């Protein structure tokens, strides 16, 4: 049986994965613009990027809450180093 993640580990993973998704989506938006895709496609890609960025902000807030309730509170959240 696999080891279950602690709430802090799970929250950290969500932040990390979200940041990776944001980075990939930024690349997609840049490529769409560079390649001259129709503005509607670029707008949709940018909307998705904003949604992903919002999700990462929420994930970071959740991580802070988990850290405040955990003995792992001394460990810095991802991306803060």
Summarize the structure.
This protein has 81 residues and is mainly α.
Unreliable spans: none
Mean pLDDT: 91
The proportion of residues forming helix, as a percent range, comes to over 70%
- Strand count: 0
Q: How many separate domains?
A: 1
Quaternary structure type: single chain
Helix/strand structural class: mainly alpha
- Strand content bin: under 5%
- Based on CA atoms alone, the radius of gyration comes out at 16 Å
Q: Give the overall silhouette.
A: elongated
Question: What is the distance, rounded to the nearest whole angstrom, between the alpha carbons of the first and last residues?
Answer: 33 Å
Topology:
Blueprint: H1 7-34, H2 39-68
Helix pairs in contact: 1-2
Task: Outline the structure in words.
Helix content is 72%, strand content 0%. With 81 residues, the protein is an all-alpha fold. It has one domain. The longest helix has 30 residues, at 39-68. It is elongated, with a radius of gyration of 16 Å.
Supply database-style keywords.
single chain; 81 residues; mainly alpha; 2 helices; 0% strand; elongated
